[in-house]
Specification:
The complex is a heterodimer of chains A (319) and B (80). In chain A, helix 1 packs parallel to helix 2, helix 1 packs parallel to helix 6 and helix 5 runs antiparallel to helix 7. In chain A, strand 13 and strand 14 form a beta hairpin. The N and C termini of chain A lie far apart (66 Å). In chain A, the strands form 3 sheets. In chain A, strands 3-2-1-4-5-7-8 form a 7-stranded mixed β-sheet, sandwiched between helices. In chain A, strands 10, 11, 12, 13, 14 and 15 form a 6-stranded antiparallel β-sheet that branches. Chain A is built from 8 helices and 15 strands. With 319 residues, chain A is of the alpha/beta class. Helix content of chain A is 26%, strand content 25%. Chain B is globular, with a radius of gyration of 11 Å. Classes of the chains: A alpha/beta (319), B mainly alpha (80). Chains A and B meet through helix 1, helix 2, helix 6 and strand 15 of A and helix 2 of B.
Chain lengths: 319, 80
């Protein structure tokens, strides 16, 4: 085996931190450079704090394709870069500056769920399994050859947020296999089967903006869970409904155990829970936001909006 | 009330991190004792245990630096 390969990381968050820790145990990969992606606000500075505490070399950048980052990697003769929870698109200039290539983490089982909001779409599409992929970066979007992939079951009741967290944990676990491949001499390059490619962009919203209570309870439950990122801000529009012309947003629903009948949109119960008739049963709305998007107790919504059983969700909100 | 909340917050933190050495004086973020995952888990538990709603805008590092920071966050939302 030759001398260690110089590797770098571009990324942020827990997954970048944990993968960096794995690299510190490698004899074959010498992790020497990091770029903290500052293009988005983070909950806590996990990765940067880890770099500071360990006195590791790093840059903070919201423009990873610009000269300072390219020059930084070139100056340290970085041969291979891992893009880990990096929200910036990698352009050709950066890619060309890394002789051994760039490997990216994607929280979906490519070629399915390329693009954005993969976990939300997996929930909306009622997938029983989800997965994560480490893949080579090429000029396309999440289209490069696969290095490693891992599938896992989607737990019942998963939300976008909980599935993202599961995916991150799976990605960290799988990174050990990527490092092992490096140490054994060759990283996989398994071409993606383009015939199975499924991609969503920022324009795509699982379930549309409005909640249509003439749909099944199962579908409404999935579209709400697909857009439930609480306690964090949702990158997707919140599922919206309105009553007496006043809009509100749904954060959490559950399918009611008891059978119910009535026209879709009928308010069956209105206290600390708001129970609404759907096509094949009723839904209990257990977490809501007011018209300003502020989370409030359901009981407050009921009182503030004057909601009582027998009322109907505004039809124009879903017709 | 504050000391009761402090004890409950500390207990939740120890449970989430599996670190019984965490204390009221620990510099949680500065010392890397909790990270973003722990904060999300903690917020969900705080909402369950204390019946509060913590807005996404309040989930910032300044509110999770120490146990007293978290206690202040809980109490502010209890009173509001």
């Amino acid at each position: 085996m030759g001398s260690p390969r110089h590797v770098g990381i571009i990324g942020t968050g827990r997954i970048a931190k944990e993968c960096a820790k794995i690299l510190t145990h490698s004899n074959h990969l010498q992790w020497i450079a990091s770029v903290v992606d500052s293009s988005r606000e983070t909950l806590s500075p996990d990765f940067e704090q880890f770099l500071q505490a360990g006195n590791h070399s790093y840059l903070v950048s919201s423009a990873i394709n610009e000269a300072p980052v390219i020059d930084y990697f070139e100056g340290l003769e970085v041969d291979l870069v891992f893009s880990i929870n990096n929200h910036q698109i990698i352009r050709e200039a950066l890619l060309e500056g890394i002789p051994g290539g760039i490997i990216n983490f994607h929280n979906a089982p490519l070629p399915r769920y390329a693009g954005l909001n993969a976990c939300s779409w997996a929930i909306y599409n009622a997938e029983s399994e989800h997965g994560v992929t480490w893949h080579w970066v090429d000029s396309g979007v999440d289209s490069g050859d696969i290095v490693a992939q891992k599938m896992f079951p989607v737990p019942p009741g998963s939300t976008a947020r909980s599935l993202i967290m599961l995916s991150i944990s799976a990605g960290i676990e799988l990174f050990g296999e990527v490092v092992t491949q490096c140490e054994q001499g060759a990283l996989n390059r398994l071409p993606q089967d383009r015939s199975h490619r499924l991609m969503y962009s920022s324009r795509d919203i699982p379930g549309g903006a409005q909640v249509d209570f003439s749909l099944s309870t199962d579908l409404i439950d999935r579209l709400v869970r697909a857009r439930n990122f609480t306690p964090l801000e949702s990158p997707l529009p919140l599922p919206r409904a309105s009553i007496m012309g006043r809009p509100f947003f749904l954060d959490e629903v559950r399918v009611a155990d008891v059978e119910s009948a009535g026209t879709p949109g009928l308010v069956i119960r209105a206290d600390e829970v708001l129970e609404i008739q759907a096509a094949d049963g009723s839904l209990e709305i257990t977490r809501v936001r007011d018209q300003d998007g502020q989370r409030i107790p359901v009981a407050s919504l009921v009182t503030d909006y004057g909601i009582t059983p027998g009322m109907h969700i505004d039809e124009e909100s879903y017709v | 009330m504050s000391s009761l909340v402090t004890n409950q917050v500390l207990s939740l933190l120890q449970e989430i991190t599996s670190n019984s050495a965490l204390s009221e004086n620990s510099a949680l973020l500065a010392e890397g004792l909790i990270d973003s995952f722990d904060i999300i888990t903690l917020v969900n538990r705080l909402e369950e245990v204390f019946g509060v709603i913590i807005a996404a805008q309040e989930i910032v590092p300044e509110n999770f630096g120490t146990v007293p920071d978290i206690v202040r966050l809980v109490l502010a939302n209890r009173l509001s």
